[in-house]
Design brief:
By secondary structure, the chain is α+β, with helices and mostly antiparallel strands. Among the domains are: 42 residues, no CATH class; 126 residues, FAD/NAD(P)-binding domain (3-Layer(bba) Sandwich), CATH 3.50.50. It is built from seven helices and five strands. A hairpin with a 4-residue loop joins strand 2 and strand 3. The chain is elongated, with a radius of gyration of 32 Å. The two termini are 62 Å apart. Keywords: FAD, Flavoprotein. Its cofactor is FAD. InterPro entries: FAD-bind_Monooxygenase_sf, FAD/NAD-bd_sf. Belongs to the FAD-binding monooxygenase family.
């Protein structure tokens, strides 16, 4: 800004006193150029009232205008339609400017079963939001897979888990740049930072590497048949699959050197002997086409 703004008064009015990053970065180069055009005027004042063809500021200045663009920010988490959870809980109240404004792992909200959300409070929007959305999608799919496979009616984050998660979040926020003395949409009306994940996007990737199932309430379609998804005891590969997970091709066979006496040749380890015997048995059963070679998936 110091290199782009030539007017000292304009620089003094625009140059922030807080750290870079306290507010979300925006591509502001052209904006700074536009403010210094001959047909632009910067007025650091509040609007008192509007007339038919002008606006009047608190200090009494009057400025003629044809169009007034009212751009003072937005509400990041106010749903535009009612979302009601268990016990009549309202997501609009949970996420208003004075509410707790919390979520769990940037994907779900306690008390709202089967609700998955992108970019809720505390989400990885540091830099580009796309990698965080992709990772959140992967996390949601893993939970949805359990929902479908085990025939669950619903999955819901417990209030206790969400509270503990957000306690950790707020314990880290004082160390983050967006907790600085600026006014931004990262914060609610009480100054609590409610938007960004308290770390890097890579950190979010690591944090969602596993699903902490102990943090969820799982409700089954039939609680007496929790293991119905185990089926009839046979996998979809059948009795004679193309691959056995406990049989691995040998990787430690030592080939004998040339002109070496047969008696001094290195014997294959017992594990490879077991591999060859197993492959011969599978070949006789018709499960292995070529003895001595690993099976090939069709």
């Amino acid at each position: 800004m110091k290199s782009k703004i030539t007017n000292p008064d304009l620089l003094d009015a625009l140059l922030p006193e807080f750290e870079a990053g306290c507010r979300r970065f925006t591509p502001g180069g052209h904006y700074l150029d536009a403010l210094q055009k001959p047909n632009a005027m910067y007025v650091h004042d509040s609007i008192n009232k509007l007339t038919e063809d002008s606006l009047i500021t608190v200090s009494g200045g009057e400025y003629g205008c044809d169009i007034l663009v009212y751009a003072t920010g937005f509400e990041p988490y106010q749903p535009r339609f009612p979302v009601t959870g268990r016990a009549g809980r309202s997501l609009s109240e949970e996420w208003d400017r004075e509410g707790p404004c919390e979520s769990y792992m940037a994907a779900m909200v306690a008390g709202f079963p089967n609700l998955f959300v992108f970019n809720p409070p505390i989400c990885p929007v540091n830099g580009s939001a796309i990698p965080g959305i992709e990772r959140a999608s992967d996390y949601m799919i893993r939970i949805l897979s359990r929902l479908q496979t085990d025939k669950l009616r619903s999955i819901s984050v417990t209030q206790r888990a969400q509270r503990a998660f957000n306690q950790w979040v707020q314990s880290r926020m004082p160390h983050m740049v967006w907790s600085g003395p600026c006014k931004s949409w990262y914060k609610n009306d009480n100054g609590k930072v409610v938007v960004p994940w308290p770390g890097t996007v890579l950190h979010y990737y690591a944090a969602t590497e596993i699903v902490r199932w102990e943090d969820f309430d799982l409700f089954y379609e039939n609680p007496d048949e929790k293991y119905a998804s185990f089926g009839n005891g046979v996998t979809i590969d059948g009795f004679v699959p193309n691959h056995f997970p406990w049989v691995h091709p040998p990787t430690d066979i030592q080939k004998p050197e040339r002109n070496m006496e047969p008696a001094s040749r290195v014997l294959a380890p017992p594990s490879n002997v077991l591999y060859r015997v197993t492959s011969q048995v599978l070949h006789l059963l018709g499960a292995w086409s070529y003895p001595g070679e690993p099976p090939v998936k069709s």
